[in-house]
Specification:
Blueprint lengths: L2 H14 L3 E2 H8 L3 H11 L3 E2 L2 E2 L4 E6 L2 E6 L1 H12 L1
Antiparallel strand pairs: 1-5, 2-3, 4-5
């Protein structure tokens, strides 16, 4: 995953504060929804290759669409990045 994309996703989610639809997030960043979904999967808490992700985002299917929001761990990570 590109550090630029992951950083842009985290910044966009931190700015919005509320859950955001994945297609809307992709349009905002100029990338496809599938690219966004793959990047967000790596930032969630899913276990991939025996390694759990950092748990920075939470994705859920809501009213026929996928939405994502920052978790408390994600907000703390964003705060550390902005002060570091």
């Amino acid at each position: 995953m590109s550090e630029d994309l992951s950083g842009a996703l985290l910044r966009a989610l931190a700015e919005d504060g509320a859950p955001v639809s994945i297609p809307r997030l992709g349009k905002r960043l100029g990338v496809g929804a599938s690219v966004v979904m793959r990047a967000l999967t790596l930032m969630g808490d899913a276990v991939l290759g025996g390694q759990a992700g950092p748990g920075w985002v939470h994705m859920r299917h809501e009213e026929g669409r996928w939405v994502v929001s920052l978790t408390e761990a994600g907000r703390q990570h964003c705060a550390q990045r902005s002060h570091g």
